[in-house]
Amino acid sequence: MTTSTVTPEIVSFAQGVRAALADLPAEEVDELTDGLEADLAEAYAEDLQRELPDPAAYAAELRLAAGLPVRSKVKHGLVAGLGQNWRDMRADLAVAIRRNPALAAAVDFLGELRPVWWVVRAWLAAWLVAAFFGSEQRYGVQGGWWIVMLAFIMISVQWGRGRWHFNGTPALIVIGNVVAIVALLPVMAAASSDDSYVDSYPSGPESSVGITLDGASVTNIFAYGADGKPLTDVQLFDQDGRPLAAHLDPYRDECGDGGQCKFSADGLTGAPTQLETGASVRNVFPLSFIEGLIDETTGEMRDDPQAVPTAATRPFVKVPALLLPEKVAEPAP
Predict the structure, then answer these.
(1) Nearest to 192 by CA among 139, 149, 142, 140
(2) What pLDDT is stored for residue 4 in this prediction?
(3) 209/206 Cα distance (integer angstroms)
(4) Around 88, how many Cα atoms within 13 Å sit in the side-chain half-sphere?
(5) In whole angstroms, what is the distance from residue 324 CA to residue 273 CA?
(6) Which of 69, 173, 180, 321 has the highest CB neighbour count under 10 A?
(7) 3-state secondary structure of 243
(8) What is the reported pLDDT for 78?
(9) Distances (CA, A) of 88 to 34, 63, 205, 215, 252
(10) CA 312, CA 272: separation in Å to the nearest integer?
(11) Is the distance from CB of 13 to CB of 55 less than 8 angstroms?
């Protein structure tokens, strides 16, 4: 034989139900709530995960089942009145839902999913706290923050089961649920944006822009001849005959014109060189630099046609000459 235990939570719940029925005669209250504690204790013995409903809503269902009118409104003070209005509204809503079989079935189904929500709101709270300290990572957290998340889940589940309650806990849970519902979509969007950011960020040489050396942008090239003296106006091409143009990389360098990176952070850009064909090119090294001009209409930076090119400072005045093999005289025919 199984012995059902009447817990303090059940006693408190029954008192709340009787308080919600206090406007009725004592005989009717006794008739409606006769054996309430024992019935609840038996239900809890069969299902320990079951959560007690709101006492006011439960009392409203008893009234509905007995064919009694809803509770008459009693005047209260401002604060007490707001609390009573909230409880009455919940009770009336519960009655309206129970009168509609489809809504009642939907509410019962959502009630079965409450344990999932307990875990979700705990994850959300832990993620927000970790994000405040910069320790969030996509949909999870880093390092020891997993312990914090597990602690939040334990607290959330115990609160959902009606355990670990203290004065003010129900109001705190309501406020927390509202905040969690409001923050859920923005947090999910932020976690998803982390994934897209990592996936879209260039990770290899194929995604780089311009000439690089050891991961740094090459913004100018200085050529020296076999005698070690500097060369000027050298046209450079790659193995396919494409002009080599120095360029900043928007993912590595600070650019003065946003993502285009034609201008450096100090507003300089390589001066173009004119070919005999009339074309303007930027693969003639070493480059000279000109200052950009900000368009007052669009706010964008462009070449200043009046700017005077400034020659770049060479890293070396002269480099060691090449040791070339001596020419061997060709034999006489």
Answers:
(1) 139
(2) 63
(3) 8
(4) 13
(5) 33
(6) 180
(7) strand
(8) 59
(9) 23, 13, 66, 67, 61
(10) 14
(11) yes
Where helices occur in the chain by DSSP H, the ranges are: 8-20, 26-33, 36-46, 55-66, 78-98, 101-112, 114-132, 145-160, 169-200
For position 200, what pLDDT does the model report? Answer: 45
Predicted local distance difference test score (pLDDT) of residue 158: 85
Residue 206 and residue 158: Cα distance in Å, rounded? 52
The answer to whether 161 touches 51, Cβ cutoff 8 Å, is yes
Closest CA to 213 of 252, 264, 258: 252
pLDDT digits (tens, 9 = 90+) for 309-323: 888 888 888 989 888
Please choose, from the candidates 280, 279, 275, 246, the residue with its C-alpha nearest in 3D space to the C-alpha of residue 263.
246
Q: Estimate to the nearest angstrom the gap between the alpha carbon of 19 and the chain centroid.
A: 45
Alpha-carbon distance of 78 to 84, in angstroms, equals 10
- C-alpha distance from residue 299 to each of 270, 293, 295 (Å): 20, 10, 5
The set of residues, in sequence order, having a beta carbon less than 8 Å from that of 137 and lying 6+ positions away, is 194
Q: How far is CA 76 from CA 19, 21, 72, 171, in A?
A: 15, 17, 13, 19
End-to-end CA distance of the chain: 124
Q: Once rounded to an integer, what is the mean pLDDT over residues 52-57?
A: 79
Burial class from Cβ neighbours inside 10 Å (0-12, 13-18, 19+) for residue 307 reads middle
Q: In sequence order, what are the beta bridge partners of 291? A: 268
Q: Which long-range contacts (CB under 8 A, 24 or more apart) does 239-243 make?
A: 243/281, 243/282, 243/283
Of the candidate ranges 69-83, 85-99, 155-169, 180-194, the one whose mean pLDDT is the lowest:
69-83
Residue 43's SS3 state is helix
- Enumerate the domain spans of the chain: 8-112, 114-200, 202-321
